[in-house]
């Protein structure tokens, strides 16, 4: 029994040691960017039931770095679930990116939120936090481009195109029928060469047969890709492995980097290949692009000073052919992720691929205008179908014809890149959202007006939306950008107010405050409400002081006014004409005054708000005094009631 137990122990130890050696070999290959071979080894170890945080991470990374996002998501998920204490912030970002490739945006956003919590100063996290509705922003751009597959794709990787005269130049690792194929360890495929095809052939059936090697002088046994041609078509820049004059160079870790090269067209052939002076054995410089005037060369690099895995840079091309010092495009464009494949259109629009800005998954294509400065700098995801949940990159476009090309691994395999033709239907524009808000108040008292109706009309007076204000008297609308509107506020007992509103073509907030005036304005101390309300005469029967029905109608107006302005105090003044005894007229007017005040008090007006007395004939408004012959109309002017405002606060 002891022998059996010892045998099992030794056997287990042997196989455990064997797996450790496999992992060690895989790790060495992984660190040398041999992701395919390391991936196979890690996967076989996992398939045998072995698990660890480091194993899951390396396997997930090997899939991630080869754009196999579905597989990467599986093992990042296992790492986070089973070994949470070993999870670094970058894992959450890569898991979120991989999940977007599977269109699981809800879980992806949760992982980005964790990523933000763990590394909130990371540009990618900040960008995500600033644009929580990034999917809606991307949706805004949907349909800006029409995308169709070209017929020049080979079943291998085809990407990174450039327009040269009437030809399309691109990189491909297609099978050319040779006996010897050098295999790139990163993805297990042959190395890339430059090919050419007439642009008229890219849409033809069997178009791949028209593709021919671009230049025997430029293509080598290693990578050549992403060319760009200067004005005049006699100078080109392109990417190649660190391979020059037959020497294949590596950095201190044994890794061969990418470099930029310049070639010239002379005597009917391309040649004179020269390495650019800002290359290095220790970092990658790749994917060139030229400014419209040809005076700046843009590229992607992880040289010192890079914010992330790869940043966009530029150098000035001097008149004598020398180059200035590399300049980083800064953190408005670059992130801690990967920014690559720049292209500058004739309109000075910079298109580039990034996995650091919020996108649909993998690399997405983004747009910014290089003429913009400060707050005007906007980074736009150009939306579907130009972008997908896979890797989309290497965008180029002819600004005159509005046609161009992009590269993507959106095909069925999701591994090999293909070239797609694009047609611009409209220019992508920033998502424009306007909030038109404010409140409604009484113009005189500044009281918030609950129950006011605020309506928004378009410039043709069509009602768009109306709102009835609540306790806080606020309103809010979301009008279209760059449009004209009419804002109308109304409320019973108030005059209607209208305002013209023009919205900008950029997102923002507009505040409008509507102040409504009562249909009858509040009187000042000393004003006679009878005149403000244009009261008809309040008649009393001869020698009587009771309130007649026709007088009630006029007093009702005073009642409503006092109810509307509850702070107003009034002095009621009653007058008679000169006919009759002075003392009698004084008594009669006093009785009529009391009747008037009693009527208002009976209707609910607080007695403290009313004062007054009868003045008899002591304050005539005309010459109709005792003994003066006057008409009935003249005497009527003296038989009056006044409602003088004493205070209104």
Give the key terms:
649 residues; alpha+beta; four-stranded antiparallel sheet; 12 helices; 35 strands; disordered N terminus; cell outer membrane; WD40; OmpA family protein; membrane
Describe the structure.
The protein is an alpha+beta fold and 649 residues long. Helix 3 runs antiparallel to helix 4. The chain contains 12 helices and 35 strands. It is elongated, with a radius of gyration of 42 Å. Strand 18 and strand 19 form a beta hairpin. Residues 1-35 and 177-188 have low confidence and may be disordered. Helix content is 24%, strand content 29%. The strands form 10 sheets. It has a 4-stranded antiparallel sheet with strand order 1-24-23-22, with no helix packed on it. Strands 2-3-6-7 form a 4-stranded antiparallel sheet, with no helix packed on it.
């Amino acid at each position: 029994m002891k022998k059996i137990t010892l045998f099992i122990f030794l056997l287990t130890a042997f196989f455990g040691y064997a797996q450790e050696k496999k992992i060690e070999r895989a790790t060495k290959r992984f660190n040398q960017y041999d992701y395919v071979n390391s991936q196979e080894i890690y996967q076989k170890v996992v398939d045998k039931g072995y698990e660890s945080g480091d194993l899951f991470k390396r396997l997930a990374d090997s899939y991630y770095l080869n754009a196999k996002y579905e597989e990467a998501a599986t093992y990042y998920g296992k790492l986070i679930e089973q070994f949470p204490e070993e999870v670094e912030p970058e894992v959450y970002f890569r898991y979120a990116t991989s999940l977007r490739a599977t269109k699981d945006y809800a879980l992806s956003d949760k992982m980005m939120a964790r990523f933000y919590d763990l590394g909130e100063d990371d540009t990618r996290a900040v960008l995500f936090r600033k644009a929580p509705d990034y999917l809606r922003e991307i949706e805004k751009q949907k349909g800006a481009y029409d995308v169709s597959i070209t017929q020049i794709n080979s079943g291998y990787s085809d990407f990174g195109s450039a327009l040269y005269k009437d030809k399309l130049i691109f990189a491909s690792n297609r099978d050319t029928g040779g006996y010897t194929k050098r295999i790139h360890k990163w993805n297990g495929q042959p190395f890339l060469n430059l090919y050419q095809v007439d642009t008229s052939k890219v849409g033809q059936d069997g178009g791949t047969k028209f593709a021919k090697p671009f230049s025997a002088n430029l293509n080598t046994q290693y990578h050549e890709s992403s060319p760009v041609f200067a004005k005049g078509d006699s100078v080109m820049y392109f990417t190649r492995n660190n391979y020059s004059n037959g020497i294949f160079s590596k950095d201190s870790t044994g890794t061969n980097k990418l470099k930029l090269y310049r070639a010239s067209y002379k005597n009917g052939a391309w040649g004179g290949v020269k390495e650019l002076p800002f290359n290095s054995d220790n970092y990658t410089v790749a994917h060139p692009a030229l400014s419209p005037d040809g005076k700046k060369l843009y590229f992607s690099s992880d040289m010192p000073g890079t914010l992330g895995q790869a940043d966009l840079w530029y150098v000035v091309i001097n008149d004598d052919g020398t180059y200035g010092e590399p300049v980083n495009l800064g953190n408005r464009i670059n992130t801690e992720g990967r920014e690559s494949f720049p292209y500058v259109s004739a309109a000075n629009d910079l298109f580039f691929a990034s996995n650091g800005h919020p996108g649909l998954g993998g690399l997405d294509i983004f747009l910014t205008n290089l003429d913009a400065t400060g707050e005007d700098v906007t980074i736009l995801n150009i939306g579907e179908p130009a972008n997908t949940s896979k890797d989309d990159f290497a965008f180029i476009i002819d600004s005159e014809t509005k046609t161009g090309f992009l590269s993507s691994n959106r095909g069925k395999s999701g591994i090999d890149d293909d070239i797609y033709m694009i047609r611009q239907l409209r220019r992508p524009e920033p998502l424009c959202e306007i909030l038109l808000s404010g409140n409604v108040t009484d113009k005189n008292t500044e009281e918030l007006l609950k129950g006011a109706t605020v309506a928004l009309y378009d410039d043709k007076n069509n009602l768009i939306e109306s709102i009835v204000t609540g306790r806080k008297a606020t309103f809010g609308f979301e009008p279209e950008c760059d449009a004209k509107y009419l804002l109308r506020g109304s409320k019973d007992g108030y005059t209607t107010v209208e305002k013209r509103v023009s919205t900008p073509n950029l997102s923002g907030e507009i505040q409008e405050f509507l102040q409504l005036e009562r249909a009858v304005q509040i009187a000042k101390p000393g004003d006679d409400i009878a005149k403000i309300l244009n009261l008809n005469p309040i008649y009393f029967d001869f020698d009587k002081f009771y309130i007649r029905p026709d007088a009630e109608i006029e007093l009702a107006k005073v009642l409503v006014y006092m109810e509307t302005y509850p702070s107003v105090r009034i002095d009621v003044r009653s007058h008679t004409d000169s006919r009759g005894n002075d003392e009698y007229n004084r008594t009669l007017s006093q009785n009529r005054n009391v009747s008037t005040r009693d009527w208002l008090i009976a209707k609910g007006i607080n007695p403290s708000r009313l004062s007054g007395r009868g003045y008899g004939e002591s304050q005539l408004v005309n010459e109709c005094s005792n003994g003066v012959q006057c008409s009935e109309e003249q005497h009527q002017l003296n038989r009056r009631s006044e409602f003088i405002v004493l205070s209104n606060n």
